[in-house]
Amino acid sequence: MTPLERVSSIKVKLGLLVAASALVAAVVGSVGRVAGVSPWVSIPVTIGIALAVTQLLAAGMTSPLRQMTLAARRMARGDYTVSVPAGGADEVGQLGRAFNTMASDLGAVDRQRRDLVANVSHELRTPLAALTVVLENLVDGVGSEPAALQTALGQAERLSRLVEDLLDLARVDAGKAPLSTSSVDLGRLLEACVAEVRANGRPVSYEVDAPADLVVDADPDRLSQLVVNLLDNASRHSPREGVVTVRAGRDGERYHLEVLDSGPGVPAADRGRVFEPFGTLSASAESGGTGLGLAIARWVTDLHGGSIAFLDPLPGTAGARVRVDLPLRPPARPVPYALDASHPTPTQEKTQMPTTPPAAEPAEPARPAETPQTEKSTDPKAVSAAPSVLDDIFGTYWPDSGVPGRFGLFIGAAVAGLLGGLLIPDRNAGLGTVIVLLAAGGVVMLAGKERRGWPKRSPRRSAWFPILSYVLFTLLSSVAVFRDAEWIVVLCLITAIAVLLCASTEAKTLAGIMLTGISWPLAGLRGIPWLGRTLTSVSGRGHGAAVARTAVLSLLGLVIFGLLFTSADAVLGSWVDQFVPDVRPDTFAARIFMTVFVFGVVLGAAYLAVNPPRIDQSEPTSQPVANRYEWLAPVGVVVAVFAAFLVAQATAVFGGEDYLRETTGLTYAEYVHQGFGQLTVATALTLLVIWATARKAPVETVADRLWLRVALGLLAAEALVVVGSALYRMHLYQEAYGFTQLRLLVDVFEAWLGLLVIAGLVAAVAGGAIGRGVWLGRFALISGAVALLGIAAINPDAWIAEHNVSRYQESGKIDTDFLSGLSDDAVPALKELPESLRACVLGTSDREGDWLEWNLGRERADGLTPTYLMPDDAAAAVCPSEIRYVD
């Protein structure tokens, strides 16, 4: 049962849903703010918990609507065995129950239609075969004696009766069987019907028992048809010298007719089926009937607003007993007609009756659990796979066609979340951070490995990229245990996550890599149905309660006996203190937030690995331009602009600083700093030009390919010169104003762009293009990751400190304010400063971290740390600082 199942209004459900979600979000956000949790953690956790509450309360609220869509499509294909869950008491539940009733009724009608067609075909085949034989004999000149002709006449009359009965049923079924009611003397009508049936010559006797004064309003023709069909059926099933009795009587405002015979009777289990077309218990061909008499009798009874049924024989008798209950005056519906001279008199109203009694409205359930339709979990014909709202949102980009649940991944994500909540808060990045990252990465790697065994999206998969990505992820994650510089640790961790996610989605292109990053947070929303299937995979097998009970008992045993033994033994207590963090009240909320955050991001990444989106769908082939100048002219303009820049660079280099001062009023250091950012952007835009040119330039002829290679070769060569110029400018700027982390990072970034220019040129000339190449996107990702590993390997803060110390030794210039902001990685290099300057940038570290916070950089600092000293007049004279350009 869902939490809001008993609420009887969809409006109230939606109101409660919004109120509960808003309340939970407000409470969780307030707790995070009071606990000082970072917004980068508290906001995703708040959104995730609010979505979880929404999913819990909204479970089953609209699923019947989606399942009705699937059921309607199956019904349109002729499958009327479907049903939808209808356990709610609201309007959606009522609609589901009405839909199930409609489906059941349509299924019955369709089944009757199929049976009717089959039975009519069977009934027509027998007389037609007999007529064919007689006619073939006549053609051959034999069989012309009266007996053979009498047989043919009998078969033809049977066909005629069958066709007339079918036409009557068709008119009744179409609602076009009118009743012309009038006053009928029931006794005389029964005598006339008996006389008509007696003419058949069957060896039975008939008895009529009816009041002489019983006059009713009815259609005499239809009522006679009803009685004749019942008498004919009774006479055919009565033995020789049997007695068929027809009786009538009045019951208040109604009257009844009963026909009794002395035949074998009708078993109670078959009494409902005999009124269906061709539903008689014996073959109509053997008994001489058409198989439609009782069906017509039922329809005539329905036309008069009555009922018909087989009853048990009277005490002391045997045979069949059929009873018809009719109103003295049928509840007529006037038939629209034009006002003319044929207007019926008041004593003879022309009416049209419904062919079947209207279906009863679904009863308003007092308790939804009592409704039969609620038990759908074990019905194999129930519509179990309904399209989710998320399927409409994500469409074909990210389908989720029943991806099986992975409870092991859920447990792994929970373990990673617990490790994150225990090891990350209140600690600096170190060994504990690496443990959490490797645990999370292991869960995602396992998810990717399982997916390769379930369903294969591509017949050809390269194994080298996932393996290399996992190696890079491990190396990038381990930077936190070797380096103390937060900026390089953060960059490496972000890149490690990007590499891991791209290995999960097997992204190939630059667009696919970017879409992978966007899809990761969206996985928390797209994976909600998968999470439900994961949890159901345990509870659905009956193990949910057992797993929960086992977990609770195990936790209680660990806590109770752990507290007892740790308090009883000091050695064991010291061991536990080394592994279990000190969970104080002021950090408890932060640990809970971190646990939920890590659990959510790991589970989202695992779902991304299990069911990756279609990020690298084949793009439509770009149509090359018709004329060569259409692409060559724009590229030529860009090449010319690059050439003009290079000429200006050469002029500035050979003109010297005096020429720069005369023309620009800038020193050379100011000049090189001024244009570095623009050069970086120009290098990046060069990649875009190469990509667009390779897509639009025709390559059918040798001349086309030659022009493409020459133009892009010139552009790439000029871009590489620009890259060299930018790096040279940065070198001069660093010599003038010192080395910083950002300047080092920009140096590496510019060099990486130059490498991509070369790779883009190779891909373009070889026939691929950036964004569509098989290897270029991955090359950019892997080369960027390797570049970051290279930065981490040289120990960037120590490298920067060493170069600043060397610059001080050469020029006497130093910025102690900047050096005091470096990480512990720089301590060994800063120790090389003179004692007077060393006191300006180094101080004693007062941090007391445990082994989970261990880091090689902090270990090598030997208790020292760069410390920023607030300068006063005395300190400023000893601790020099430069006026630095803002990076």
Quickly list its features.
11 strands, 60% helix, 31 helices, two-stranded antiparallel sheet, 887 residues, 5-stranded mixed beta sheet, alpha+beta
Explain what the structure shows:
This protein has 31 helices and eleven strands. With 887 residues, it is of the alpha+beta class. A hairpin with a 2-residue loop joins strand 5 (242-251) and strand 6. Helix 20 (629-663) runs parallel beside helix 23 and helix 22 runs antiparallel to helix 23.
Tell me about the biggest sheet?
5 strands, mixed
Distance between the termini: 61 Å
Q: Give the strand content.
A: 5-15%
Strand order of the largest sheet: 3-5-6-8-7
Mean model confidence by pLDDT: 76
Q: Enumerate how many helices there are, as a single number.
A: 31
State the helical fraction. 55-70%
Please give a quick description of this structure.
With about 900 residues, the chain is of the alpha+beta class. The strands form four sheets. A five-stranded mixed β-sheet has the order 3-5-6-8-7. Strands 1-9 form a two-stranded antiparallel sheet. The longest helix has about 50 residues, at about 90-140.
